[in-house]
Amino acid sequence: MIPPPETLRTSKTRVTCDGSGDIPAALGHPRVYLEIDEKGYVDCGYCDRRFVLIGGPADGADQSKLPDVPSGASVL
């Protein structure tokens, strides 16, 4: 497995992703809401950005060894 292109640590289990960051939001993707479950992380189904729960089971783990978890996405 290869590591995700970008990993963000968060203290919340519900996060949003619109693909922006270093680029304007208009060049990203539709905003999706993601829920971090008991695995401690979730991946955006559009841009593969990974959100890791601070203090969760995936925090500090080698992200390249964890499988993709694109579940829980909803477009609004």
Overview of the molecule:
It is a single chain. 0% of the residues lie in helices and 28% in strands. The strands form two sheets. Strands 1-5-4 form a three-stranded mixed beta sheet, with no helix packed on it. The radius of gyration is 12 Å and the shape is globular. It has strands spanning 7-10, 14-17, 32-35, 41-43, 50-53, 74-75. The chain has 76 residues and is mostly beta strands. The N and C termini lie far apart (31 Å).
Q: Secondary-structure element order, as H and E?
A: EEEEEE
Strand content: 25-35%
Mean pLDDT: 83
The number of distinct β-strands equals: 6
> Low-confidence runs (pLDDT<50, min 5 residues)?
72-76
| Biggest sheet layout | 3 strands, mixed
What is the topology?
Elements: E1 7-10, E2 14-17, E3 32-35, E4 41-43, E5 50-53, E6 74-75
Parallel strand pairs: 1-5
Antiparallel strand pairs: 2-3, 3-6, 4-5
What's the short story on this structure?
With 76 residues, this protein is mostly beta strands. The chain has no helices and 6 strands.
